[in-house]
Amino acid sequence: MDAESRKKEALEAAIQAAVADDSRSKAILVVTSVFLAISLVSVCLRIFVRTRVVRAFGWDDIIMVVAMAFNLAFAVCGIVGAKNGMGRKLLYFEAYPDQFSRALLCWWLGQNFYVITCVVAKVSIIITLLRITVDRIHAWILYAAISLATAVGLIFLFFTIFQCNPVSHFWHQLSPTGSCVHKSTLIGIAYLYSIGAAITDLTIGLLPVALIWNLRMNSRTKTAIVGILGVGCIASAAVIIRIPFVHHYKDREFLYNTYQISIWSNVEAGLGITAGCLTTLRPLIRFLRDGSSASRSRRPGSFPLSSNVAANLQKSSRSRGGEDVHQLWPGSDPDDYHGVTTTIMGTQRPNPRSSSEENLNPRGWKVERSVRVSVRDDAV
C-alpha cells in the first residue's frame, strides 16, 4: 500500500470519526429544548395569571411575550442548526457538504435572535421593577440599566448582522467573493456585550432586594420574593460563564468549538425570561388553592396599579409597607405584611382603566371625598 492510499484511508477514518462524534450537537439540542420548554411554560402561566386571574395585562407582559417569540426563533435556529452541523468538526462536512452553509446560517440567525431576546426580556423586567419603585435613586439606576442593556445589545447586534460584506458571505464562506471583519473586532464587541449584559442582570437581580428589604413583612414571604427575583442573578452567571469561550469566534473549527457559546446563550435567554415571569405567578398559588381568585371579579371601586412611573415616584413619600408588596406580588396574603394602614370609605365613580393597570386590593376599596387615615401603634 503506497503513501497516497494510506493518507486516503486515514482521511476516510477521520471523516467517519467526525460523523460519529455527535456529542456536542446533542448537547446543543438538549439544552436548547429544555430551556425553551421552561421559558415557554413560564410565559404561558404569566399570560394566564395576568389575563384571567388578576386581569391586568400590561406593557411589561406584552414585551415579555415578544421576548418569548424571539426566544422561540432562537431555539428553532439552535435545534435546526444542531441537526445540520452545529457542534460538528469540519471533517463532518466532507461527508455532508450541503449542511455547512445551513449550519452557519442557523448560527448567524440564532446569534441575532439571542441578542434581541435578552435585551427585550431585560426591558420587560425593568419596566416591571419601575412600576414598584418608589425611590427616585432606584428609578435612575433602572433607567441606566435599561440604557446600558439596549446600547450594548444594539452594538453587538449591528456587528453580528453586518460582520460580512455581503451579509450572506457569513454562511457562504467558501465563496471566493466577499469579506468579513477581523475576528478580533467581533470578539472585542462580544466581550463588551457580555460585560454590559452581566452588569444589567446583576442590577435587576439585586436591586429588588433593596426595594423590599425595609418592608414590614414576615421573613418567609420576604425570603420567597428575594429568592424568585434572584433567579435573574443566575442569568448573569450564565453570561459570565460564557465569557471565557468568546475567543473561540476566531477558531478554524468554529462550529465545533463554539458549542459552549450556544449552550450558555440558551441558558441565559431561558433563565432571563423565566425569572421575569416567576415574579408574576404568586396569584396563581391562591387561584389553585381556593379554586378562584378574588382578583377575577374586579369591582369598579378597586384601585389599579398604573404603569405610570412618574406617578409612582410622586407617591414615594406616602407609599410604604404593604402597598409596595401588593404592587410587587398581587394576591399576597394580608398577614404577610403590615405597616401604615389607609382606610378609605364610601363609593367611587367608575373610571376606565388601561390594560396595564392592576388591582392592588383584590377585595376592592371604595372611595368618597372624605378620607380617614388610621395608623396602627405597632407599625410606628
From TrEMBL:
GO CC terms of this entry: membrane
Composition skew (Polar residues), residue ranges: 340-359
Membrane topology: Multi-pass membrane protein
Compartment annotation: Membrane
Ranges where the record places region Disordered: 312-365
Ranges where the Rhodopsin domain occurs: 45-286
Keywords, alphabetical: Membrane, Transmembrane, Transmembrane helix
Membrane-crossing segments per the record: 27-49, 61-82, 113-133, 140-162, 191-213, 225-249
Superkingdom of this protein's organism: Eukaryota
Family: Belongs to the SAT4 family.
Protein name per its UniProtKB record: Rhodopsin domain-containing protein
